[in-house]
Design brief:
Number of strands: 8
Number of domains: 3
Helix content: 55-70%
Oligomer: single chain
Largest sheet: 4 strands, mixed
Distance between the termini: 24 Å
Shape: globular
Radius of gyration: 36 Å
Strand order of the largest sheet: 4-1-5-6
């Protein structure tokens, strides 16, 4: 890679973007104007945000005596409500005693019709019973004072409860109910205090102490606690926004202007072009985020200085934000650049912003949940780990942030590298760069799909198959209930495996491809491939067992999910071992391998990268497992099985691995502790677990993993059948490594790099 070419491309793209007034407005002008205007608008709108009074119908209040101290001047007493005017009371005239049900029905109708936001209904005998109850308490207190102890509390003087009528379909009615409930609670507490005094009991008997709180937060970090909920989210969103629009202009915009071909025909390699454009997009992404953070900081500080404990974030937090902004901007810039290269036009490229936000926003919002904290498991989640780390720094938890910063940095840099590789691959694919705009004709598209079938499915067909399986599984899982016996469990497994996974894949195979045998990899491998795959499943089982425990420790299973799994385990434990091997080992292996290592993997092979095809099919394989922890392990095992299928060119080694892995898992759950010999040699490899099963020691895990690596290397030495796209990509990579592209001094005038590279491949 020649960095002088990268520098020239970077300078060219920056100058081109600086000539665009829209880019300058988004980066420099909008942040300066946006937040002051929002602050001014907030003060203007706040004038209309005052609390509005709610209309309350009061029924049966005429019988209340003045000693109740509930009402004053046709309002609630001031000591019961901070602002009595917020509840506008309408007192219904007292009527002769009627049927209580009819009276309540009339009140209910008036609230439901919207005449009143809520109603407060007192039963006809409420006041009399309340006065009698209080009089009885006073008589008991006087009797005890006079030495008489024969006066007892009359149990029949139970006071009926007032009733609040409200309508949950209207927000104002719910607000009225909340206000009424608060008034009645304070009134009830006040009456209770008076009753205690009348009974000669101190109020401290029921409230012996009050709780005093002390804020130990440092004054410098009190403001940081608020900023920690604002700055990370704003930084990520503006870094994404600042990267998206320049990337669209630098790729899709150049396609429309017809200047992309000129750039591609230059002596610069594709990687150098991508790196130059990436640095440009990163620059604008970082500037956009910084200017927006500065603007919101100044505006927020000026508006909120009156709040107690508010202040600017500490300088260390500002430095952490700036450091974290660089890899985050690189990640978003690479993603936006790849999507922009895929788009046919600027208009199409703008449509990709919403899907990108839908993928990133959950990762940004997840750290805002109260129960989510910075730990090793959460730090391994892309984007989420960055937000949690910045939140800890802004809150002043420097040691906690320092502990997990290496994990967050490693995951973020890995995601950056993968995104950059994806962007480079997009620029290496001429079918992506020079896609023409087309109009969708559904009938013509279906006829083309069925008449121009290829031996193996397309990438779009593979994605459609995986998505269809996930959708069917989601709706079917919602409709199905937890089986109560083994027969129901067998029915659930068969329906899931056959109807949800196998049938869609087989139907799409026969409808969309010309060669089901080639699509499903139904050919015999080398004689040693199946035994080697079975041995690989045995030696990797201890590592998978330990890895499952590590995943569950990093991401604990929800208690309700754990209870459901234990119930399912109880149902499984009642079945015969070989029946379980058939249902949990053989059936899933056949159905899932035909779908994921057959149809889906064959379609993803047209991407031109076998490892990307393996990983993508493994991700779909993992997502079909309902529990997150199982999905993570299944995805890793899916990568191993996919590698076996690619290297052997057959689905049968993967089926052997899958069957044996599931069988070993079933067998492990059936091992009783007394079956493991109580000898030092046996305890070097396995240890019994209470409740059944065994735990493999680290010696077993390490030895088995080493043997597994050797077996995978052995598989890697076998000749791998490649698709046409993979052969083309391999030739392109060989051409780049052999320095086929001419340097600036050697390049002939008008040399077209794409045509020369195609000639070299031919």
């Amino acid at each position: 890679m020649t960095f002088s070419n990268v520098k020239l491309i970077f300078a060219r793209e920056v100058c081109d973007q600086l000539r665009d007034r829209r880019t300058l407005f988004m980066i420099a002008v909008l942040p300066i104007l946006l937040y002051p205007l929002l602050g001014t608008s907030f003060f203007q709108i706040a004038q209309f945000m005052r609390e509005q009074p709610t209309r309350i119908l009061v029924v049966g209040a005429g019988s209340l005596t003045e000693s109740s101290e509930l009402f004053e001047d046709q309002c609630f007493a001031k000591h019961l409500f901070a602002d009595p005017k917020l509840l506008k009371l309408h007192f219904a005239p007292d009527k002769p005693k009627t049927d209580r049900a009819l009276a309540e029905a009339d009140v209910n109708a008036q609230v439901q019709s919207g005449d009143y936001e809520a109603a407060l209904y007192f039963p006809p005998d409420f006041s009399a019973r309340l006065d009698a109850f209080r009089k009885n308490l006073a008589d008991r207190a006087k009797g005890r004072a006079a030495g008489r102890t024969n006066i007892k509390l009359i149990s029949t003087l139970e006071v009926p409860s007032p009733k609040i009528f409200h309508n949950t379909a209207h927000d104002k009615s719910q607000l009225a109910r909340k206000r009424l409930a608060e008034v009645l609670r304070r009134w009830s507490d006040r009456i209770g205090d008076d009753n205690l005094r009348a009974s000669g009991i101190s109020i401290q008997a029921i409230r012996p102490f009050l709780v005093d709180t002390t804020d130990v937060a440092d004054a410098r970090h009190r403001g940081g606690a608020m900023w920690s909920k604002v700055f990370p989210v704003l930084m990520l969103l503006w870094a994404l926004t600042g990267a998206f629009y320049p990337a669209i202009d630098l790729c899709a915009g150049e396609k429309e202007r017809g200047t992309l071909e000129t750039l591609l025909s230059s002596p610069a390699q594709r990687g150098e072009i991508v790196l130059g454009k990436l640095l440009t997009v990163m620059l604008f992404s970082i500037l956009t985020a910084i200017l927006n953070l500065l603007s919101v900081s100044v505006t927020g500080w000026m508006l909120l200085t009156q709040l107690p404990g508010f202040g600017l974030p500490p300088p260390v937090a500002i430095a952490a934000l700036l450091i974290a902004l660089v890899p985050v901007a690189a990640l978003f810039s690479a993603l936006c650049l790849a999507l922009a290269a895929f788009a046919r036009s600027s208009k199409e490229g703008q449509y990709y912003l919403m899907p990108l936000l839908l993928v990133i926003m959950p990762l940004v919002i997840l750290p805002m949940s109260p129960g989510v904290e910075l730990n090793l498991g959460n730090s391994l989640i892309p984007i989420t780990g960055v937000v949690l780390l910045l939140r800890s720094v802004l809150e002043g938890s420097y040691w906690e942030a320092l502990q997990f910063s290496p994990a967050v940095a490693a995951v973020t840099l890995l995601a950056c590298w993968m995104s950059i590789r994806w962007a480079i691959d997009q620029f290496n694919s001429e079918s992506v760069l020079f896609r023409e705009s087309e109009r969708l004709d559904l009938g013509l598209w279906l006829r083309h799909l069925l008449s121009n079938r290829k031996p193996t499915p397309t990438v779009a067909a593979a994605v459609g198959c995986g998505t269809l399986i996930l959708m069917i599984k989601f709706f079917l899982s919602s409709a199905m209930t937890t089986p109560s016996g083994f027969g129901g469990f067998v029915h659930t497994v068969l329906v899931t495996q056959l109807a949800v996974i196998a049938v869609p894949a087989l139907l799409m195979t026969f409808l969309l491809t010309r060669s089901p045998r080639q699509t499903l990899l139904l050919k015999l491998p080398s004689w040693w491939a199946i035994p080697a795959a079975a041995l690989l499943a045995v030696v990797l089982h201890p590592a998978a067992n330990r890895l499952q425990m590590v995943v569950e420790r990093l991401y604990p299973i929800n208690e309700s999910v754990r209870a459901a799994l234990e119930e399912m385990q109880h149902v499984i434990g009642q079945a015969n071992f070989w029946s379980l091997v058939l249902i949990l080992g053989v059936v899933p292996a056949l159905c899932e391998e035909l779908a994921f290592r057959g149809f889906i993997l064959s379609g993803f092979r047209h991407l031109g990268h076998r490892w990307r095809a393996i990983v993508d099919s493994a991700l779909f394989f993992g997502l079909t497992h309902g529990v997150l922890q199982q999905s993570m392990i299944a995805s890793l095992l899916g990568v191993v099985i996919g590698y076996l299928a690619v290297q052997s060119g057959s689905i049968f080694p993967g089926i052997a691995f899958h069957v044996l892995h599931n069988t070993l898992a079933v067998a492990n759950s059936r091992i009783a502790p007394e079956w493991i010999p109580d000898s030092p040699l046996a305890r070097m490899f396995v240890t019994p677990v209470d409740g059944g099963g065994c735990l493999f020691t680290w010696l077993t895990v390490v030895v088995g993993s080493l043997i597994g690596v050797l077996l995978l290397i052995w598989f890697g030495r076998s000749p791998c059948p490649m698709s046409a796209e993979e052969s083309l990509e391999a030739a392109i990579e060989r051409g780049e490594h052999d320095d086929l592209s001419p340097t600036v001094e050697q390049a002939p005038s008008g040399a077209v790099g794409i045509g020369r590279l195609q000639n070299e491949i031919a």
